[in-house]
Amino acid sequence: MTGYKLLVKNARQVVQVSGSRESVKRGSDMNNLQVLEGAEGGYSILVDRDGIIADLGPSREVEARHCSDTIDTVVDATGRCLIPGLVDAHTHTVWAGDRVHEFAMKLAGATYMDVHKAGGGIYFTVEHTRGATEDTLYELLKERLVRAVRAGSTFVEVKSGYGLDLDTEVKMLKVTERARQSLPVDISCTYCGAHAIPKEKTSQEATTDVVNVQLPRIKDLMSSKQLCVHNIDVFCEQGVFDVTQSRDILLAGKSMGLNLNFHGEELHRLHSAEMGAEIGALAISHLEEVSEEGISAMAKSGTVGVLLPTTAYNLRLTPPPARAMIDGGMAVALGSDFNPNAHCLAMPLVMNLACVTLRMTMSESLVAATLNAAHALGQSDRHGSLEVGKLGNMLVLDAPRWEHLIYQMGSHQDVISHVIWHGDVVHRKQ
Ligand SMILES: N=CN[C@@H](CCC(=O)O)C(=O)O
Ligand SMILES: [Zn+2]
Fold first, then answer.
1. Reduced to 3 states, what is the DSSP secondary structure of residue 194?
2. 310: Cβ below 6 Å to ligand 1?
3. Sign of the C-alpha dihedral, residues 196, 200, 202, 206?
4. Which of 164, 235, 287, 316 most suits a substitution to test ligand 1, by most atoms within 8 Å of the C-beta?
5. How crowded is residue 3: how many other Cβ atoms within 10 Å of its Cβ?
6. Is 314 close to ligand 1, i.e. is its CB under 6 Å away?
């Protein structure tokens, strides 16, 4: 007799996303969703006490295989659908000081860079984040991650980048590590010390500070297990870090074993997509201004394009060319880009925007918000699909077909009936 943590039983539809342990779906394969449906009695998923999927298939078969086992919790999903927990591949979730006043300025016509150059934008948030205690930042992060989980995310990337000095960047990374150790959500931690040029430095001085001061300190804190950082990010943009500076910072991170995952081609075409592909970037975010050559280079290198539809929506930018990317064989992922400029943690809304504004199909959008997002964070071996051996992170949807999660725009709180993380029910619809 074996003991298990959770059985989710009798679901009408199980969207595994993938059933062959592939690490990513590229190009047209993003439309090949692995879906189980049609069995009499539905489908069940069994999660072991380590939070790992132990069995999955037609309910009658799963029940027959485990009729003498003990199961701690049973969730009846009769008439409902199961999908993997959503993965948010790009967030700036640790900061103090909202920028609701800037939203009004932007609605009135100011551009993102107008606000930034006038000392607002990232600089406003840096000032407030530098002044906040670790406990305050932790409480703010916790509140935001609870919201993300309620909206279906079970794995979230979290960046630093509102310190721009060693002490505040380390403070942000420590807050992220505390959340990673204590909250019921998986976190991929990104060092983004090169998010803006600190007011007191030139871009070259800031590059040298990141490479020679901040990264070595972070490396020490990682060695002594005080921090666990997975990725390195840079805002490669005209007037911020140029392509050469970004490359130097990314390569310094790569030599420490960090995944390269950066902001590129957002407001100007600098050909950072080609640079990222050349140095083996795992992912590049934004890409509103990417060129055809950049798309080919990323398709060839396998670099994931992390698309952030909330940014183009809020800033009224031309959206990234998602169709050309997917049709060109790239792997595309999605992120909420939660930050004080784009205050959205709801991946179902991001998926809706991806379908409508980026012209992605609903299948592409689900793959982008699960398997491919997990791959962009280097963790699709554990996240992003419902398969035996992967984490028991899943959503029970109160709907006859999974597409309702995207279709019922703004109603994800009614569509998601349970959020399950490592086999524990961490959110239940009221
Ligand atoms: N573009 C750079 N970074 C963020 C915005 C950060 C901010 O405005 O605070 C982004 O991805 O959109
Ligand atoms: Zn960002």
1. strand
2. no
3. negative
4. 235
5. 10
6. no
pTM above 0.90, yes or no: yes
Query: ipTM higher than 0.90?
Result: yes
Please tell me if the CB atom of residue 125 comes closer than 6 angstroms to any atom of ligand 1.
yes
Distance separating alpha carbons of residues 58 and 39, to the nearest angstrom: 6
pLDDT, tens digit, for every residue of 110-142?
999 999 888 899 999 999 999 999 999 999 999
- Report the C-alpha gap between 330 and 324 in whole angstroms: 9
Amino acid identity of residue 287, one-letter, is: L
Residue 81 near residue 11, CB atoms below 8 Å: yes
Q: How far apart are CA 18 and CA 32, in angstroms?
A: 8
287 — alpha (psi -120 to 50), left (phi > 0) or beta?
left
What per-residue confidence (pLDDT) applies to 117? 87
Distance between CA atoms of 188 and 295, rounded to whole angstroms? 25
How many other C-beta atoms can be found within 10 angstroms of the C-beta atom of residue 40?
A: 7
Please check the confidence at residue 295 and state whether its pLDDT lies above 90: yes
Kindly report the protein residue whose alpha carbon is nearest to atom 10 of ligand 1: 337
Q: Which residue has the tokens 């640790």?
A: 94
d(CA 61, CA 134): 50
Q: What is the mean pLDDT of the chain?
A: 98
Q: How many CB atoms lie within 10 A of CB 191?
A: 30
| pLDDT at residue 218 greater than cutoff 90 | yes
